[in-house]
From TrEMBL:
Coiled-coil intervals, chain numbering: none
Domain of life: Bacteria
Protein's organism: Pikeienuella piscinae
Molecular-function annotations in GO: thiosulfate-cyanide sulfurtransferase activity
Protein name: Rhodanese-like domain-containing protein
Chain ranges of the Rhodanese domain: 30-127
Length: 131
């Protein structure tokens, strides 16, 4: 049995989802109808810091937090916002956004280049040990 390469899955997902540039996300970060969603592991947040105001939704719970029929549903995901998911470098977020799109979630995108792109573009970061 051949395993499909993770980076091939990322490439395919990226072709089917919207990607927002770090510069655009920085411009829109204070817009009340725009929410950055950090799907990184809690250890990554502790080590690298976080984007102020971003909502943390760990990747492992994402589908369950999005599904209104799930006992783990988070009402924030029922709000009328543009949800922009990100991880460290836009791999996990690409696959996540594609999965959520397949579940029927609308008005979603990923942050191009992820948290590293945000940092590189000069976006604000709080906390972290590597700051």
């Amino acid at each position: 049995m051949a395993i499909k390469a993770a980076f091939e899955m990322v490439k395919e997902a990226t072709a089917e989802i919207e990607t927002i540039s770090p510069a655009e996300a920085i411009r829109r970060k204070d817009d009340e109808d725009f929410l950055l969603v950090d799907i990184r592991d809690p250890r990554e947040l502790e080590r690298e810091g976080r984007i102020p105001g971003a909502y943390h939704a760990p990747r492992g719970m994402l589908e369950f937090w999005i599904d209104p029929a799930s006992p783990y549903y988070k009402p924030i995901f029922g709000e009328k916002k543009k949800f922009v998911f990100f991880c460290a470098a836009a791999g996990r977020s690409a696959i996540s956004v594609k999965t959520l799109q397949d579940m029927g979630m609308e008005n979603i995108a990923q942050l191009g280049e992820g948290f590293s792109g945000w940092r590189k573009a000069g976006g604000p970061v709080e906390g972290g040990r590597n700051g």
